[in-house]
Amino acid sequence: MTEKPVLVWFRQDLRLADNPALTAAVSTGAPVIPVFVLDDSGAGDWRPGGASRWWLHQSLAALDESLRGKGSRLVLRSGAAGQAVSDLLRETGADTVFWNRLYEPLAIRRDSDIKSDLRDAGVTVKSFTGNLAFEPWTIRTGNDGPYRVFSPFMKACMRQGAPDQPLAVPETLAAPNDWPASDELDGWKLEPTTPDWAGGLREHWTPGETGAHRRFEAFLDDSLDSYAKVRDRMAGETTSRLSPHLHFGEISVRSIWRTLDHREAEGARSVGKFRAELIWREFAHHLLFHYPTLPEKNWRESFDAFPWVDDQEALKAWQSGKTGYPLVDAGMRELWVSGYMHNRVRMVVASFLIKHLAIHWRHGADWFWDTLVDADLANNAASWQWVAGSGADAAPFFRIFNPVRQGQQFDADGAYVRRWLPVLQHLPDKYLHAPWTAPDAVLQDAGVKLGRDYPNPIVDHAAARARALAGYDRVKSL
Ligand SMILES: Cc1cc2nc3c(=O)[nH]c(=O)nc-3n(C[C@H](O)[C@H](O)[C@H](O)COP(=O)(O)OP(=O)(O)OC[C@H]3O[C@@H](n4cnc5c(N)ncnc54)[C@H](O)[C@@H]3O)c2cc1C
To answer: Is 99 annotated as catalytic?
Structure first.
């Protein structure tokens, strides 16, 4: 082939199906050069964390394999993305670049700079909608502003109607005469080695497009119908676990949406509830786009007056699952081992950090950023601020989750706590969520000595609650 190739710059869209940038490149008829750039330059605090890097390695390997099945391959480059893309254009003689848009503030700034530099240099650049069903600037209030409240935002999304039909996987990808040089994926050292803490991640997840579709199919077959009823139950697979696949774009939200439409027409239950969660994802991105300081600053400035406590020891106890509250500790262990935590448990552990320990939500968000396989700037920031009460349409601050009652309600048979805290497995249900209330003989029978095998609570619920509410008085008075 003598035609100039087209570069497709993959980012958080690591898939072949319903990938508008890829499909547009293929439809030019020119050779296609798929590229991924590992660009930590300028990422600041938001360089992907350890669990995300592990996932990224697997997902890139999977994408390369799928591309090879189509007669193509993934070219890997590292460094500042603008430089890497310009180098590739020069080396390959390409004069066209396509990508799907991202919505994080740093990515927007970087991508707009790259776009204008390349256009100035005579390169054709096109960006597409690939990661959201509704781009943040397309959903506007009656006053032509951004939404701050979820329900009307959701209604506005629904008024837009279903997103376009998803695009098929291209049949083949025309290869260039010569492939440009590529970094070795292993050389990027995205996976941990000493120590290799990723065993639990490998056991729980199959990153990549095939894994994403299998996960979705399994959810449709086994859990969708009961989702609205049981999604708050902490044990078992009560939710889709699609979050990391969605974050890395291994499955597109519009293909999920369209499949849900079909299932609904066939009589599936819970579709509305599940779709609402997908719209929470859209809402988080809408908020981040319109309020770019969301990951760093209280959305409600009055929360700047909250008397946060700097307690490294308590933070460490929370991170390592040693607070003495079984539900909190089980959640933090689930996170550490599997890179994931059930949504309701996320709410409980976040509330515990912020309200029981009076530690700033940023510390919690940072820990999640490093340990979650689904770490996502928009969803993480919006959710932490939601729990803190400092965010848009957030839970009121005075709603302080009681970890004992949450456990008794949503893990009534203790299956979740026993799975992640086997040390408590022989404790009767009655005491499982509050071991300090168990008589000595019961603890002894269960083989648990508090303070030796499992910690005593690091704070008293009632006292912590009173302190949190007193702190909130300062916020309220502003
Ligand atoms: C403190 C805290 C931090 C969080 N951090 C993240 C994060 O970094 N990344 C992340 O993807 N989610 C985050 N969430 C939201 C939510 O907990 C996860 O998306 C969900 O648990 C993922 O499991 P699932 O895929 O089985 O969800 P399902 O219940 O099956 O929902 C389907 C999809 O909807 C989206 N979704 C669901 N709930 C929310 C929500 N509250 N906000 C935004 N999108 C949502 C996700 O993409 C999810 O995959 C956080 C929640 C809390 C309380």
So the answer is: no
Look-up of token digits 């939710």: 239
Q: Are 446 and 476 in contact (CB under 8 A)?
A: no
Which protein residue has the closest C-alpha to ligand 1 atom 1?
384
Q: Which of 243, 332, 385 to mutate to test the pocket of ligand 1 (most atoms within 8 A of CB)?
A: 243
Ligand 1 pocket mutation pick from 257, 279, 379 by most atoms within 8 angstroms of CB: 379
* Ligand 1 atom 20, closest CA: 343
Residue indicated by tokens 């406590």? 309
The pTM of the full predicted model, rounded to 2 decimals, is 0.98
2 pLDDT more than 70: no
pLDDT score of 45: 83
> Do the beta carbons of residue 352 and residue 325 sit within 8 Å?
yes
Give per-residue pLDDT as tens, 298-337. Answer: 999 999 999 999 999 999 999 999 999 999 999 999 999 9
CA distance linking residue 420 with residue 329, whole number of Å: 8
The yes or no reply on domain 6-130 and CATH 3.10.450.50 is: no
Residue 71 has pLDDT above 70, yes or no: yes
Residue list, ligand 1 pocket, CB within 6 Å = 231, 239-243, 246-247, 277-278, 280-281, 284, 343, 346-347, 350, 368, 372, 374-376, 379-380, 383-384, 387
- Ligand 1 centroid, distance to 375 Cα (angstroms): 9
Ligand 1 atom nearest to 342, measured from its CA: 21
Q: Which CATH class is domain 132-165+208-290?
A: mainly alpha
Cα separation, 21 vs 130, whole angstroms: 8
Q: Is 290 helix (H, G, I), strand (E, B) or coil?
A: helix
State how far the Cα of 76 lies from the Cα of 185, in Å rounded to an integer.
7
| Rg, C-alpha atoms of the chain | 24
The verdict on domain 301-476 having CATH code 3.30.70.100 is no
Domain ranges of the chain: 6-130, 132-165+208-290, 301-476
- The β-bridge relationship of strands 96-100 and 124-128 is parallel
Whether 280 sits among the annotated catalytic residues: the reply is yes
* Token pair in block for residue 339: 């890179």
Q: In what order do the strands lie in the sheet with 32-38?
A: 75-78, 32-38, 6-10, 96-100, 124-128
Q: How far apart are CA 312 and CA 133, in angstroms?
A: 41
CA distance 147 to 475: 24
